[in-house]
Write a structure and sequence with these properties.
The complex is a heterodimer.
Chain A (H helix, E strand, L loop, with lengths): L1 H14 L8 E2 L25 H5 L5 E4 L5 H16 L24 H12 L1 H18 L3 E4 L2 H4 L13 H15 L8 E2 L2
Antiparallel strand pairs in A: 2-3, 3-4
Helix pairs in contact in A: 1-4, 3-5, 3-7
Chain B lengths: L1 H14 L11 E2 L13 E6 L5 E5 L3 H39 L20 E2 L8 E4 L13 E6 L2 E10 L4 E4 L4 E6 L4 E8 L1 H8 L19 E3 L16 E3 L3 E3 L9 E2 L9 E4 L2 E4 L4 E2 L4
Parallel strand pairs in B: 2-10, 8-14, 10-12
Antiparallel strand pairs in B: 1-6, 2-6, 3-5, 3-7, 7-8, 7-9, 9-13, 10-11, 15-16, 16-17
Classes of the chains: A mainly alpha, B alpha+beta.
Amino acid sequence: MFWTRVAVGVAALALWPAGASAQKVIDRSLAPIAVDPATVKTPELKFTETEEDKAGYDKYFYFVREETDFATAYQDIRECDALSRGMSFYAGGGQVPYPYAGTLAGAAGGVIGSMVADAIFGSSVRRQQRRTNLRTCMGYKGYSRFGLNKDLWQTFNFEEGNNTVPEDERQQYLQMQAKAAITGRPSTQELEF
Amino acid sequence: MRSIHLLAAAVAAFVAMPVAAKPLATEQFKANAAIAIDPAKAYILVRAAGMDLKLLRVATESERTAWQSDRAEALAKAKEKYAREYARYQRDLEYWKDQGDHGMNVSKPEKPIEPTDANFNFKALESDNFVTVWGGRVFDKGGPKTAHLIAVPPGTYRLYGQIFEAGGTGFCLCMGSVQFDAAAGTITDMGTMRYPKAEALKDKVDPSWNGLTPGKGGLTVMRVEPADAETYIPPKLASLPRTAASYRAAGKIDNFFGVMIDRLTALPGVLAYRRDEVIDEKTGAAVGSN
């Protein structure tokens, strides 16, 4: 099974044209987006905690930071979202083009590297990596993490493995996450970083 | 067996692909290599490179200027192409509208996206400047940690992270790291790379260093132990010109390889953090993102 995945991954790599990621125009930009917080729905965060909920806190959580405002929280979340999925944030918008296109040494990087890794390790590993990256990034930004009921979590979050969430939809989710981040510290227990 | 054949065919096809870019010219030395310093090259000595250490040479001003020019040219071409695509789109749209209810079941044409400076995706300035120090290529095993030696073009190098080339996995120190100058004609000693969490796991102890602990305690996936008078030097390099890397704080940078993200553990006197802001401890000033 593993070698089949490796083969599929490398096959995908072989079929990818050299330099294919260059010069692609994408419908997004990571320049700050001005959003009126009054237009963003505050997600429901109150629930009666069960053991089943607690078991899912590794996946279903949200971030809170008391000393922040919506604009800061939204930009923080966008930065962490971009870093988590390998999107260019500091050097302008766009999928980060992978280094040394068309060389074997650069095979593991960026778009193609992701394709190979996705084929080998599968979507679940990518989803887990995204969760871990968000925790790391938001943790360094001083946010605390709190668990949430899965059904509530799904109203303003998304999982991203080998699939990609459309940009408009993504930004709406991120805005709601920013709204959640400024609701104040909940009474539930803070989770590990 | 079928999978192995497919793998072999895929590798063969990939190797036959045209080379579209030029990575930096480097040479990593094996244990039996004779070392003679080339005055035109810089040499980097590092211990415990792991699987595999990734360095990034910081682009020079002339490289940046050339890249900006290339990007502007490519953007201009993309805009010309867009004008043609938009005209075709308008024609196709008119045709689609004309079909009405008695049409030919033609799907509505998709409006092309106008390229702008903000959304134009061009290869990164850093694309050709990465250097891999292969963990498996050991120059010397005599010290407490394996030593690796690589010849590189002179320049400023950033400690970028660890990327396992064969699997597209690893981590980048995207949220803060260090950089140093590697001068021509000398060996720059990066010291020893340490992996607090992995080392603690191996030793079955709680990870800690210099009063730091993981998570909000500040200890991260990696730290640097700069070379000092006690650091083991491979005998073959003992008489060659050598200097300890003079580290400086390096700001945030993109996750070019789409891997796990982290930052280098704070390095006293060099690198500190205020929340996620990277601080140059030598000046006390915040360091901008790359």
